[in-house]
User: Fold Glutathione S-transferase from Microvirga aerophila.
Amino acid sequence: MAILHSYPFCPQSRFARLVLAELGVEPSVVEEKPWERRLPFLEINPGGNLPLFIDDDGLAVPGALIIAEYMDDTRGDTLRDRRFLPRDIAERVEVRRLLDWFLVKFHAEVSDYLATEKIYKRFMPTELGGGSPDMGAIRAARTNVRYHLKYIGYLIATRNWLAGDRMTYADLAAAAHLSVVDYLGDVPWDENETAKHWYARIKSRPSFRALLAERVPGMAPAEHYDNLDF
Assistant:
């Protein structure tokens, strides 16, 4: 059976989980706390990054982007014209550009700050950096999310989905990262109705149900978090 090492509120893990769910792949999930860097996990994945997918044949596939590419390589043909990484070369470039935007840029500027400061630090021991959140980092992330939301709204104003006419990995990556920020109540949805409607479409998909059901111990989500018609 396939295995996915992930953490419930790791944005990159959430992207991989959405990809697998959309493809109908149901792996056994191993919760991996990103700050622990367990030796058995590092022996499989020396980089220590999440998520890590281990396919039925034992092949270890590390990292959100590599997992997405691997799933397209191994399962994409079965989706035909519904594949999440299109066949057309120009469309593939646009999807990959937006994957970099959300998996790298958005992560570095918004979701990694907020997940670390408001969630991870609650459970990390002091010697590993746990403790009170850095309010400067949180304020920076809250400022940064505004222009990302505006960019999503700009794209959706001219396209059906982020990268074009069909839903792609770009939409799943953006929604996965936003879902963590949204849990924390840090997405100013009232500033961009276009982006809000796009996100409502994504989070209404069956693949999103497991994410919306999860809770951080001792921390309730924003009131609208699992409301499909928010």
